[in-house]
Amino acid sequence: MLFLVRMDVRMPPSMPKEEADALKATEKAYSQGLQRQGKWPHLYRVVGEYANYSIFDVADNDELHTLLSSLPLFPYMEIHVTPLARHPSSIH
Question: Rounded distance, CA 23 to CA 71, Å?
Fold first, then answer.
């Protein structure tokens, strides 16, 4: 199943830089692992925001929930999920 996911990150300004940097490094490693597995085939930054749009290709809603809630930055995210279906006019 394909899902379009928007993630807006809102880390507390009071978080020490070292802690924030470590959390971001862990997040990067986790997300790249999912990308290599093909579960997160597309990741796009939103210009001018600490946010992204991503496409996830997973078995079902439960798998997506597990992957998203396991993101190291999950406690600092606002996430919007849109299930996708093939468009009849698409040539891909």
Answer: 10
d(CA 57, CA 4): 9
Q: Give dist(CA 44, CA 53) in Å, integer.
A: 5
Give me 88's structure tokens: 């009849």
Strands (E), the chain: 2-9, 42-45, 51-57, 77-84
49 CB-near residues (< 8 Å, 6+ apart): 8
Tokens linked to 28: 């990067």
pLDDT tens-digit profile of 24-59? 999 999 999 999 999 999 999 999 999 999 999 999
Query: What pTM value is reported for the model?
Result: 0.92
